[in-house]
Here is the input.
Amino acid sequence: KAFSDSPLHRFRKPNQKVRENVYGPSPCLHLSNIPAEVTEEELKKMFESCGTIVNFRFLTSERPDKQMALLEFTNTSSAICGLVQFHNKEFITEAGRQYLRISFSKAGCIQK
Here is the structure.
């Protein structure tokens, strides 16, 4: 099945900035567009169906209504599961609908 016209296709536009942020699979995921109401515990509970989470950290964001975070699993296959299951997950908030964005982290995993 071709996904070229799908709204889930993240690289529809040829000069889209997101193309610069494509990295190979790793145990660490970068989560963005997280609603401010969503907590660390909620995200961990959501992702624990994919595997063991060894680390989590919210990142500072210029927009408090859209948080970012790093989530580290014990292995790459768990991270792939998380990306496949939860990329574009819809959150309904007072401000409206927000869709979770997930990619593999370019910075690698969280420093302990």
